[in-house]
Predict the structure.
Amino acid sequence: MDDQTTKTVAVFDRPFKLPGFDETLPACEYDIETELASPPDHKDPQAWKASVVVHLHPRLSHPGLTRSLTVSLADLGHARAQDKLSGKDPSQVFLEEMLADPMVQLVMQADGVSQAQLRHLYSGSRTAQTDMDDAVA
């Protein structure tokens, strides 16, 4: 394996779609190759965007046909996050992972911030902000 790429496996529990690809992909394991850095022959390394190659499974109608799909790392991450939490919004995935982090919990405790306050902040709701301000004070 080249030291510029890494190979992993992505597991999807539900069928999913990726932007720019019309086919709904089935729930299963997918071999993934990720470029770790811009290719040496890339003209503008600063403009390089991380992408992954997803090796698709053959269709039943074409069992010998191998296919792959190149997608952005962000799009694959978004699809995995939605699959992980039964289609919940990816911002909720972030919030739950953040609140589970022991370091975040320690910082919250030191700052006197509760989970309820952070959930309110990430909900996008700005109603009853004065109640939240009073709770912090």
Residues 46 and 134 are 45 Å apart (CA to CA). The mean pLDDT is 78. Helices lie at 73-84, 90-100, 102-111, 115-123, 129-136.
